[in-house]
Amino acid sequence: MLDTPRTGPGGARERILDTAYRLFSSRGIRDVGINEIIATSGVAKATLYQHFRTKNELVLAFLERREARWTFALVDAQSRARGETPEQQLLAIFDVFDDLFSDSAHFDGCSFINVLLEMGPESVPGRACITHLETIRGVLRKRAQRAGLDDPEGFARSWHILMKGSIIAAVEGDADAARRAQGMARTLLEQHRGGRDEIPPGP
Predict the structure, then answer these.
(1) Does the N terminus or the C terminus of the chain have fewer Cβ atoms within 10 A?
(2) Whole-prediction pTM value?
(3) What's the CA gap between 196 and 191, in Å, rounded?
(4) What is the rounded CA–CA span in Å between residue 17 and residue 10?
(5) What angle do CA 114, 116, 121 make, to 5 degrees?
(6) Is 80 helix (H, G, I), strand (E, B) or coil?
(7) For residues 152 and 144, is the Cβ–Cβ distance under 8 A?
(8) Cα(179)–Cα(169) distance, rounded to whole angstroms?
(9) Counting beta carbons within 10 angstroms of the beta carbon of residue 53, is it exposed (0 to 12), middle (13 to 18) or buried (19 or more)?
(10) 22-55: per-residue pLDDT in tens?
(11) Cβ(132)–Cβ(69) under 8 Å?
């Protein structure tokens, strides 16, 4: 489920995190200062630091929320709903992406990629992004295992490259990025079936 704003004691924290989510998603980390988050969320500076002692803590909370909304509620849940077999569910990721890429008002790329490139892999946010990206590969790896594909780890890494590449291409303005990636993904599936046809769904 997506996070929903709370009232009561958690209300200030939610306003801060909702504000940070919008700003970090659209503009990155360095361009958004703590003072802007305080002013936009309408909380006192002391209140912000009561909930998030440092900007890094706020960034990490933003990335965790992004994982809930992007990795699990969008990529994982929606692609599972669009396919009956593990292979169909893998391919459906690009159908989800195609819908997302066409919604220019809400598509803001992948925050894990953006923050990793902006902050670097040795930074606290960068290391967190690497972990969150591995979570996505974990979803792919499990589907590959259920489909009986060869080398699920290698498959997941290759599939993830197609996903990340399609996101970058869409940010560049390629309206057909998801469809192009899906075509390459079908070839990758064939390579990892080891000459077998698609395995039917289990009981």
Answers:
(1) C
(2) 0.89
(3) 9
(4) 11
(5) 165
(6) helix
(7) yes
(8) 11
(9) exposed
(10) 999 999 999 999 999 999 999 999 999 999 999 9
(11) no
The helix/strand/coil state of 8 is: helix
Pull the structure tokens for residue 155.
Answer: 């498959």
Q: In angstroms, rounded to a whole number, what is the distance separating the alpha carbons of residues 163 and 183? A: 12
Q: Which residues contact 120 (CB under 8 A, 6 or more apart)?
A: 126
What is the C-alpha to C-alpha distance for residues 50 and 13, in angstroms, rounded to an integer?
9
Cα separation, 107 vs 110, whole angstroms: 9
pLDDT of res. 7: 40
Q: What is the pLDDT of residue 127?
A: 98
DSSP 71: I
Buried b (16+ CB within 10 A) or exposed e, 14-33: bbbbbbbbbbbbeeebeebe
Nearest residue to 113 via CA among 71, 54, 58: 71
> Using the 8-state DSSP alphabet, how is residue 126 labeled?
H
CB distance 183 to 95 below 8 Å: no
The region of weakest confidence among 51-55, 68-72, 195-199 is 195-199
If you write DSSP's letter for every residue of 185-197 in order, what string do you get?
HHHHHHHHTTTPP
pLDDT tens-digit map of 1-19: 233 333 444 699 999 999 9
148: left (phi over 0), alpha (psi -120 to 50) or beta: left
